[in-house]
Amino acid sequence: KVARSFTVVTGHTVKNSDSFENWCHLVQADTLVILMGMRNLEKIADKLVGYGRSADTPVAVIQEATYESQQVVTSTLANIAEDAA
């Protein structure tokens, strides 16, 4: 399957706010790119599944991209927080 579109959002939250409250629309994206999302990875995954994205959705986490210390973890939306910890 080839994605026809992608959406890019930040994984950071705004202080004193539930910045993930409008993420219900993001489950519609063919490919979702979340920048700087490690700190909130578990919450992000839970919200996306809660809004209807399949827990079996393939996920890749790339940390420190382009550096020698780059790490890549692939998993599912249900398991990515634990696998990338």
Summarize the structure.
The chain has 85 residues and is α+β, with helices and mostly antiparallel strands. Helix content is 16%, strand content 26%.
Description:
The mean pLDDT is 90. It contains two helices and four strands, in the order E-E-H-E-E-H. Strand 3 (58-63) and strand 4 (71-76) form a beta hairpin. The protein is globular and about 35 Å long. The strands form two sheets. It has a two-stranded parallel sheet with strand order 1-2. By secondary structure, it is an alpha+beta fold. It has a single domain, classed as Methyltransferase, Cobalt-precorrin-4 Transmethylase, Domain 2, CATH 3.30.950.10.
What features would you highlight for this structure?
85 residues, alpha+beta, Methyltransferase, Cobalt-precorrin-4 Transmethylase, Domain 2, two-stranded parallel sheet, two-stranded antiparallel sheet, 2 helices, 26% strand, globular
From the spread of the alpha carbons, the general shape counts as globular
User: What is the CATH architecture annotation?
Assistant: 2-Layer Sandwich
**Cα gyration radius (Å):** 13 Å
- Strand-residue fraction? 25-35%
Element pattern in H and E? EEHEEH
Spatial strand order of the main sheet: 1-2
Structure class: alpha+beta
Arithmetic mean of pLDDT: 90
The CA-CA distance between the termini, in Å, is: 29 Å
Alpha plus pi helix count: 2
- Give the helix level as a range of percent: 10-25%
